Amino acid sequence: MVWSRGGLGNRSVLFVVFLGCLLLPVVYLITPLLSFADYAIPLWVRCSGVAVMIAALGLFWRAHRDLDRNWSVTLEIRDGHELVTTGIYRRIRHPMYAAIWLFSLAQAMLLENWVAGPAAVASFAVLYARRVPHEERMMRDYFGAAYDAYAANTGRLFPKLRMRRS
Q1: The pTM is what?
Q2: Taking the chain, what is the end-to-end CA distance rounded to the nearest angstrom?
Q3: Which of 79, 103, 107, 147 could make a disulfide contact with 143, Cβ separation 3.0–4.6 Å?
Q4: What share of the chain is helix, strand, coil (3-state, %, to 5)?
């Protein structure tokens, strides 16, 4: 059995992310079509962008590794799916989304173009706003109280700060 959410709307948003994260940057890099929107980025911003991109790729790899067979490009839970609460998921509920936010920021820091640079941030913002509420509802529906307890102890994109009591 497969629990699924999203349907055509989810696929449409994934296509928008494809445009912003891949197609527009490739068009910018290999054609002059977007040259009307070029500008100069200081070297320190580009170097910082490389560091952010490396962090994004590392976080994305770690999230995939920790999810293993529980990952799906679409919003679905298959037979045998488990609630992953170990590895990076011990502290962050959505490390892949955090990684894509970092990737999007890095793209804006690396591509010297007002269209291609921020396109990933804009397109991923649409996906994130639409998808995360559906995904969390699906997880609550399937895993119940276990997911509620997990969500109460983890941050969505960043580790939750804990206040020490004396």
Answers
A1: 0.87
A2: 48
A3: 147
A4: 65, 5, 25
What confidence tens digit (pLDDT) does each residue in 97-134 have? 999 999 999 999 999 999 999 999 999 999 999 889 98
For the chain, give the number of residues. 166
Q: 32, exposed or middle or buried, with CB in 10 Å at 0-12, 13-18, 19+?
A: exposed
Domain residue limits, the chain: 7-153
Rounding to the nearest 10 degrees, give the CA dihedral for residues 132, 161, 54, 75: -20
CA atoms within 13 A on the CB side of 163: 2
Please answer whether residues 35 and 112 qualify as being in contact, where contact means their C-beta atoms are separated by less than 8 angstroms. no
The model's confidence at residue 9, banded by pLDDT at 50, 70 and 90, is: low
Tell me the CATH class for 7-153: mainly alpha
CA–CA gap between residue 3 and residue 139 (Å, rounded): 10
**Among all chains, which residue has been given the structure tokens 């959410």?**
5
Tell me which amino acid residue 136 is: E
